[in-house]
Design brief:
This protein is mainly β. It has a single domain, classed as Roll (SH3 type barrels). The protein is built from one helix and seven strands, in the order αβββββββ.
Length: 104
Amino acid sequence: MAVKEQEKEYPNLTLEDFDHGQNVRYIPYHANGDPTHEDCENGMVKSKNDSFIFVRYIKNGILQETAQATKPDQLMHGHWLQGNGEKNGTNGTSDACSSSSDEE
């Protein structure tokens, strides 16, 4: 029941919902839409193409230079990050979780 509530609260986003510089949170499929899952990851949109959002993820409190291709339905906007761990000074994102994606 909780997953269905989360699906309503956290809608799937599309490519058009993201722009350069936005803070985002990666939610892997196995997390079932739970933005507090331990495998989540925070980052910032670098660019996008016809299929992917390229995100610079935060690793060990550092915004990485290399962006990773991420499907838009696995991302949430940065406002979901508020209150999820310590702030690291990078546009208000936190380094509460870690994961991996394909590189650009």
